[in-house]
């Protein structure tokens, strides 16, 4: 069932690992294959080693339809995103170092340092703290679903969602690149913001 989609999910997991966006078994990735089923990475598997045949097929309630492993305990967070955003086909949750550093500090990424933020992400929200693997996680993300495609989870990690698996991956990669660049810039000196006038020009486009 869904062999092509499973292979695509394997490839994205390996790419997340290669790009240092995820380590060992942390994080989880899902794809909405249709209105009945969601494809999800198995709990406890290293994303750099997970294979297509290990992917879990779940229904919208989180019940395992196909697969021998367990669905991630953070599945409710994926489910609430899909339920509130019909346009979203994939969700990526990881613990990237630089983005998570912002989340640990209780800060989100400024949208007026680099144009990639406005052009590719549109903005990044910061959730309240919620215990991983609980329904609180879904509740923490819910307020931002209408207006954002990326959030930082306070003291935890990051989540992006998109119209495809590649789109969700790209958002995560861009967010981490922005976070890294800002932090490295602060080593040299205080980053200079793009002026409000120039920010307004981007809005017009």
Any overview of this molecule?
Helix content is 40%, strand content 16%. With 205 residues, the protein is an alpha+beta fold. It has a single domain, classed as Class II aldolase/adducin N-terminal domain (L-fuculose-1-phosphate Aldolase, 3-Layer(aba) Sandwich). An eight-stranded mixed β-sheet has the order 4-3-2-1-5-8-7-6, sandwiched between helices. α1 runs parallel beside α6, α3 crosses α6 and α4 packs antiparallel against α6.
Main attributes?
alpha+beta; 8-stranded mixed beta sheet; L-fuculose-1-phosphate Aldolase; 8 strands; 205 residues
Summarize the structure.
By secondary structure, the chain is α+β, with helices and mostly antiparallel strands.
């Amino acid at each position: 069932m869904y062999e092509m989609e499973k292979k695509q999910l394997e490839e994205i997991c390996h790419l997340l690992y290669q790009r240092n966006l995820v380590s060992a078994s942390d994080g989880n990735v899902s794809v909405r294959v249709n209105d009945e089923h969601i494809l999800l990475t198995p709990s406890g598997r290293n994303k750099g080693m997970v294979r297509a045949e290990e992917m879990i097929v779940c229904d919208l309630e989180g019940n395992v339809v196909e697969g021998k492993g367990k669905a991630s305990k953070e599945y409710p967070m994926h489910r609430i995103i899909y339920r509130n955003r019909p346009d979203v086909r994939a969700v990526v949750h990881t613990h990237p170092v630089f983005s998570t550093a912002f989340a640990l500090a209780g800060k989100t990424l400024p949208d007026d340092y680099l144009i990639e933020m406005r052009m590719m992400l549109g903005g990044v929200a910061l959730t309240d703290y919620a215990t991983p693997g609980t329904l609180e996680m879904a509740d923490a993300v819910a307020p931002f679903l209408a207006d954002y495609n990326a959030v930082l989870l306070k003291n935890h990690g990051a989540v992006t969602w998109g119209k495809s698996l590649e789109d969700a991956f790209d958002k995560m990669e861009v967010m981490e690149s922005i976070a890294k660049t800002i932090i490295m810039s602060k080593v040299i000196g205080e980053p200079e913001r793009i002026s409000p006038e120039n920010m307004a020009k981007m809005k017009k486009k």
